[in-house]
Specification:
Helix content is about 80%, strand content about 0%. The chain is mostly helical and about 400 residues long. The chain starts with 10 loop residues before the first helix and ends in an 18-residue tail after the last helix. Keywords: Membrane, Transmembrane, Transmembrane helix.
Length: about 400
Amino acid sequence: MGQDVGKGGTRRRDASVVALVSAAHFVSHFYMLLLPPLFLAVQADFDVGFTTLGLPLAAFSLVTVLLQVPVGGLADAWSARGVFMLGLLLGAAAVAAAALSSSFTGLVVAFGVLGLANTAYHPAAYRILAYRIAPERLGYAFSVHTFSGFLGAACAPGILILLASLFGWRMAMLCAAGLGAVVALILLAGWPLLADRSSAPVTTAPSGPTRIWSAEVVRNLFVFACLAASNAGVQGYTVVALTQAWGMPIVAGAAAVSSYLFLLTLGVLVGGFVAERFPRHDLVMATGLGASAAALVLVGLLQFDATMLLVVFAVGGFTNGLVLPSRDLIVKAATPAGAFGRVFAIVTTGFSLGNMVAPFIFGPLMDHGAPRGVFLVVAAFTLGAIVLSLVGRRRPPALSSAPAAVVD
């Protein structure tokens, strides 16, 4: 890996970089949940069924899966901050176009463009963080970055529903587009802080297709997919599964999901400290995910009262979030020089794959009267992530001793 020419900044500079990148990550996850809170209003406006209403989301996911790796290559070869800014601006424009669309076809096309914008965030953001943040603070940076994404997803439903109730769904989307434009202006003000390469000559090792698609990188892609599928099962099916399996009131089920997500978000922040203090990130993954899987198995096998259910879901969520910064540092350790954008584009494609597969697994379980199986399959996906994290790992990944810069 090349010389670490991007380092030497103060804590304040590092904090500024993390804040800028995390602001854009907040927007990206806010946009991911742009349509679901507005389903009923959009359905009434265009007079379409719920199945048809899934087409914009399908277009978003499909474009992301197909184009994220090429966009990651662009971040490596050209400029991560340039790709980052273009993604933010294109996303804001796509959301505005969706708000102004006069036909449902136009809405689907706009969400396809939003999927293209979405391909920029993860590969560009992780490359910028790897290059700009001091190695000893990289785990914290990853945790705050991940936290900001969860925060964006958590804020979207309430804000969008409120705006739609006051001004209509189109104005709600226009306000969301304005959010992206404002954050783009903030990034422009901090433009020098986001540089991801140096004019200094740097010698790097080759990073051709064989090294990019290494066994370690492919394993991490499936780790991301397993974690995405498990979280999709919890978020999308817990309420109905608890109702069918144990007769749990809808309010109690919704509270359990909220408990899981809130503690997961808190766990991400704590996980930044854990990742920096425990160099065996694979064992951190195994321990945290093992506890999370155990909690979900208990939900599938035993009936709890509402209070105990909150506790079990809180444990499952916290221990799941705890491992995410360590997960990101495992990917960093597997990344060849000059390939951070491409590698993170590959592994984060697992998010889209996991979310695309989940409905075809959990939906049939509900249709065939096996609601408790939802929690057991969620646990199985989580255990799959553990196995994939441990396979082939003979040595602990390097931490601060290894250069964190990715330079060309």
